[in-house]
Design brief:
Elements: H1 2-9, H2 17-22, E1 51-55, E2 86-89, E3 95-96, H3 100-108, E4 112-120, H4 121-131, H5 135-152, E5 156-162, H6 170-187, E6 192-196, H7 216-221, E7 224-226, H8 233-245, E8 252-257, H9 271-280, E9 284-288, H10 292-296, H11 302-313, E10 327-329, E11 335-341, E12 344-352, E13 377-381, E14 391-396, E15 405-415, E16 421-429, E17 436-445, E18 450-456, E19 467-470, E20 486-487, E21 490-497, E22 505-515, E23 523-534, H12 535-539, E24 548-554, E25 561-566, E26 573-582, E27 585-592, E28 596-599, E29 606-613, E30 617-618, E31 622-624
Parallel strand pairs: 1-2, 1-9, 2-4, 4-5, 5-6, 6-7, 7-8, 8-9, 18-19
Antiparallel strand pairs: 3-4, 10-23, 11-12, 13-14, 14-23, 15-22, 16-21, 16-23, 17-18, 17-22, 20-21, 24-25, 25-28, 26-27, 26-29, 29-30, 29-31
Helix pairs in contact: 5-6
């Protein structure tokens, strides 16, 4: 059924009560289901406020709804994941199921992704009352929401009831929230339900802009409350005291409307005024509609303006740390002007698929002192990716001839395994850059002593105390990413770090550095990929870097097909390339995050599937006639 096929290729909301009531997962392979588990990252210490982003942009379900991506030359993307704890996908449809592209991108960075359950105004009141008509109906609706959450593999719900509720049904609404929360906790460990500040204990629709005795019954029934935007210091103090008495002071998310509607500071680039006021009370924040940047500031300048927006908030948004291996990234943001693989162009033309976003740095330009013109810079570059749609360009002027220029990319808390770890990076010097590149790892030994590990092409004649220097190794020459290679100006360097001693060693940060004794002017280097992977994980790919059980199922007379396959090393797969080959010409049909791909037109010749492991390691291509 091609209509069902189209539905399986798009992520869409449920718009009516009847759609929710009749929803079932079915038994087809569903590409809308997330395959990316929630990544490990260091949790917030007790007493540190949290931050959520509520993504409300142009009604939702734009080109982000397409499972296999879209051709979008000026897309919206989010890549400041290090700042936030929760990501809510919002629309004004009854049941907003997050597109799988957003679930995948959030999970890759250890951020929980929530959907939205919303009823609004007169039409919404009818729908809301169908849900809470009886204990049976409210439990059935809640059970459906839990099933949907578990099926699509996201993490919870924002409950937004913006209609008057009949007084005799308010208790049922509370029971709905409480039952949904308890059931989703049982089904999905770590899941949450958050209530939006709207309906009161009387059923009246009246936003409070604070937690108080009129809306606290709903806060008590779930995991948190998202306050409306017209608060003041007094209301924040009231909210903090009431939540604090319950031991839940961090569960109140104070709303900030980036469009500025009644919000302190007026939103936009002055969102920082509202955030500063919230943090003065050490309270959690809910940033609503940061897509303002894309919608109002010019899509052509989105990256520059997006970085400006989040840079202004940086001092109030503590970043998180990566805590586990493998670490592998090409710095691709999930969109680009072309798709490259190992320095070669595979597909020319714009593309957008957030499922293919790679791990983004946890450190930004905020680390550098603000000095016009001379300020160092860490910026994505979509003109010349190594693999994917972007690389990372590092540039700056040397502060002194004898002082290296450092670019901190990741704050980490990684305990290295007691085995060999392969570290790899790929770089390209830009224009007339005349300097040497090195990778710097700040590590802490089990006894608390700090050390510096430098990975570079050549030895250092007089290393500093507590410094260990690693040079490229031949130990990895038989592994898939092995050789020190040069492609289109890109050079890849591999290092083997021996971690077999019984003492624990913790990597605390990862930086790149530039050094030179005679460099003049601004120096630039592009970083195409960075990997830290246990050697045994790479060795296992040597005999398992392929796909099998490829099946092609024709779905229409026009030749529309569903292609499925299996991969023995699926946990290491970043994505799959799907090609068609005819008359000696190989064409990329697309890329897939899952082991399933749909074609809309008949292909001629053969189809081939190629897994790409750890972002940059192409596997064997399996051809099917």
């Amino acid at each position: 059924d091609w209509n069902r096929l189209i539905f399986d290729m798009e992520c869409l909301p449920l718009k009516t009560f009847e759609e929710l009531d009749s929803w079932s997962s079915g038994d087809l392979i569903d590409c809308r289901v997330s395959t990316v588990p929630l990544a490990d990252r260091k949790g917030r210490p007790k007493g540190i406020p949290k931050t959520l982003v509520c993504h409300d942009m142009c009604g939702g379900y734009l080109t982000d709804r397409f499972v296999q991506g879209a051709e979008d030359p000026l897309p919206f993307g989010f890549y400041h994941w290090q700042y936030i704890d929760l990501f809510i996908y919002f629309s004004h449809h009854f049941v907003t199921i997050p597109p799988v592209t957003w679930i995948n991108a959030a999970h890759k960075h250890g951020v929980k992704c929530y959907g939205t359950f919303i009823t609004e105004w007169d039409e919404g009141k009818v729908r809301c009352h169908k849900v809470i008509e009886s204990e049976e109906s409210l439990k059935k609706a809640a059970d459906k929401l839990v099933e949907i959450t578990k099926y699509y593999q996201f993490d919870g719900w924002l409950i937004n009831i913006e209609n008057v509720v009949d007084g005799d049904k308010v208790e049922n609404l509370r029971k709905f929230v409480e039952y949904l929360t308890s059931q989703i906790h049982q089904a999905i460990p770590g899941s949450e339900v958050i209530w939006y500040d709207s309906v009161l204990n009387t059923g009246q629709l009246k936003w409070q802009d604070e937690l108080n005795d009129k809306n606290c019954m709903f806060f008590d029934a779930c995991d948190g409350i998202f306050l409306n935007y017209n608060w003041n210091d007094g209301k924040l103090q009231n909210s903090l005291e009431l939540a604090g008495n319950k031991g839940r002071d961090m569960d109140v998310y104070v709303g900030i409307d980036v469009f500025g509607r009644g919000c302190l500071g007026g939103g936009g680039y002055n969102t920082v005024e509202a955030l500063a006021a919230i943090r003065k009370f050490n309270m959690s924040a809910a940033i609503f509609a940061p897509g303002w940047v894309w919608e109002t500031q010019g899509k052509e300048s989105f990256i520059e303006n997006e970085n400006r927006f989040w840079h202004l908030l940086d001092s109030y948004l503590p970043s998180t740390e990566i805590i586990s291996l493998p670490l592998s990234t090409t710095f691709c943001q999930g969109f680009g002007k072309k798709y490259n693989l190992l320095g070669d162009v595979v597909h020319e033309g714009s593309w957008y698929n957030l499922s293919l976003q790679e791990r983004q740095p946890t450190c930004t330009n905020a680390q550098f002192p603000v000095v016009p013109e001379d300020q160092p810079s860490i910026m994505p570059c979509t003109e010349d990716p190594f693999s994917g749609g972007a690389c990372l360009e590092l540039s700056g002027n040397f502060p002194r001839v004898d002082q290296p220029l450092l670019f901190r990319l990741f704050d980490t808390s990684i305990t290295l395994p007691h085995e060999d770890v392969i570290v790899s990076y790929t770089c390209k010097m830009v224009d007339n850059t005349n300097c040497d590149l090195f990778l710097k790892l700040e590590v802490q030994a089990e006894d608390g002593s700090n050390q510096v590990w430098i990975l570079r092409e050549k030895e250092i004649s007089k290393p500093q105390p507590n410094m260990t220097v690693y040079t490229p190794t031949e130990m990895v020459k038989d592994l898939p990413n092995a050789t020190v290679s040069t492609t289109n100006g890109w050079a890849t360097w591999n290092y083997c770090i021996n971690c077999t001693a019984e003492v624990d060693v913790h990597v605390k940060s990862i930086s790149f550095g530039l050094e030179s004794t005679n460099a003049k002017g601004r120096q630039s280097v592009k970083i195409g990929q960075l990997q830290m992977i246990p050697k045994k994980d790479l060795e296992s790919l040597a005999t398992r870097d392929y796909v099998e059980e490829v099946k092609i199922e024709e779905l229409s007379e026009e030749g529309r097909c569903r292609i499925t396959w299996q991969c023995p090393s699926e946990a290491a797969v970043s994505y799959y390339n799907v090609y068609s080959t005819a008359n000696g010409s190989k064409t990329l049909l697309g890329r897939s995050k899952t082991n399933c791909f749909y074609t809309e037109t008949r292909y001629k010749g053969s189809v081939s599937i190629q897994p790409v492991f750890y972002s940059t390691i192409p596997g064997k291509t399996t051809v099917v006639k």
